[in-house]
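Input set for joint prediction.
Command: fold jointly, output tokens.
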Amino acid sequence: MAEEKSVAIIGCGLVGQSWAIVFSTAKFHVRIFDTLPGKLSDGMVSIQKKMEDLEEKGCLRGTISAAEALKFVKATDAIEQCVSGASYVQECVFEDFNLKRSVFEEAEKYVSKDAILASSTGNIFPSRLSEGMKLKDRIIVSHPLNPPHLVPLVEIISAPWTDPTVVAGARTILNDAGQVPIVAKKETAGFIICRIQHTITAECFKLIRDDVISVSDLDKLMPHGLGLRYAFLGALETSYLNANGMKHFCSMYGEPLYELQKQSGPPIRLEGEPLERIQEELEQQIPLDKIEERREWRDQKLAELFKLKNKTTN
Amino acid sequence: MAEEKSVAIIGCGLVGQSWAIVFSTAKFHVRIFDTLPGKLSDGMVSIQKKMEDLEEKGCLRGTISAAEALKFVKATDAIEQCVSGASYVQECVFEDFNLKRSVFEEAEKYVSKDAILASSTGNIFPSRLSEGMKLKDRIIVSHPLNPPHLVPLVEIISAPWTDPTVVAGARTILNDAGQVPIVAKKETAGFIICRIQHTITAECFKLIRDDVISVSDLDKLMPHGLGLRYAFLGALETSYLNANGMKHFCSMYGEPLYELQKQSGPPIRLEGEPLERIQEELEQQIPLDKIEERREWRDQKLAELFKLKNKTTN
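tokens >
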């Protein structure tokens, strides 16, 4: 039998570290595994540093201190020790099918029969990951956004043969850990988060290709406009509130919205001159050697927003 | 000659009130006009109430108090008094072509020859608004998002015959007022804000039509996921940081992104069964008679986010 509130994390990179923060601050017992002892100890140092940093900024999740949360995390270089007894396994190794597959093959030897096995993958369907495996009905995808401890959304995708209680169980565990799970009902249309994000990216590419707007102006659109609302409201609710409900919205904007889609035209490949221009203009703002610094800035902002959203009523 | 930092606002509804807050808190002299004296006095009361409320919450823009800002706003029921001497006119009457056109015809009788005339319209092109008018080279669209005093983005769209100094001047004035103007280089592809927003809405409708996800799960995607980043980062920068630059991003995700666009299929009409389902599920969360309350909640969140973004370094 799996132990309640016991979680295994496979892979001690950035994603694994962040999952460890998510679960430990919610008082889950976390065992985190990596094959390289050096990576494991570095990862543990990094987890501690991040939690202390979040605590200092008043952005640590949950009700316990960083020091207390840290006690919930144990590192191990033996996968057996990591996964046995865990009720939920979150795989976070490098984005490579064969590697992930071999990790699941190894894990299923030792997990409880009632455990849930989840991959963090952002592009491999669970049926491909689980096909032919002994515990194939217990393997799903729980795809986070980075970093999961600051961006709580997780997309759950299941295979046609997944036990429905596994999806329900994953939703409960992720909810209990303070994440916000959403469920793709159809595997082949999954990775919904990517679908929405890529739709926006593609439209931006078209606007640059057609020289409708400069790159720097276009990139103001979200952080000074639409993105401010989307930080609090769903895309559909945004429209609902922009009129007196969705039917009212569609009666006003349905036709122009249809025309705009037609005007947008066929799919665009992200290459050639528009890509050169976007790269060049963005590099002027953020040189390639400053990307890491800018990511830290982003995560700092995400932490502040997380704090803001959690201190106020929803 | 127009007076510097002197602005005319035509229409004292919600949008006009918000523009009055934007400009007065930035120490522009504002004259706000409406034809109905009752509406004008109600509007002034509402402006005062909103500014005091923002001040109380520590969310008032600019460096002066609500009481001081209020002194910068004068109401008038004579359009001549409103627009004469103004360097910038912001029209905010009801979204009706004939009404807006007649307002501009009236305004151009009294404005300085060097004034900029801008419409708040979200769907009428400036060439249609200005065609055949005496000051047609000085009429543009400055399309805000609601409410402009909390969402600073403004899309400037010009007609083929607009004097380029008018666009540059509008950008400067809006910048000085603390807004974030972006410029559409091509009129027919303008209303870029709507284009991005509608692209997202259309993709959401497709996901609901195909029963890929529930309405409530779908509407978590922005406020607990993508929207958190978009509150601080442009859509292109988001991808740039998700890899080591945009070229790297496209080398990894270009192909799946192209496939996703194909999979998304032809334009969708916002009607029928998916619309019924969306309306029904959203109504369960926000009954139609609670929409106004939820809008107030949204604006409260926008105010808090505005405060957060402005207190921290960018």
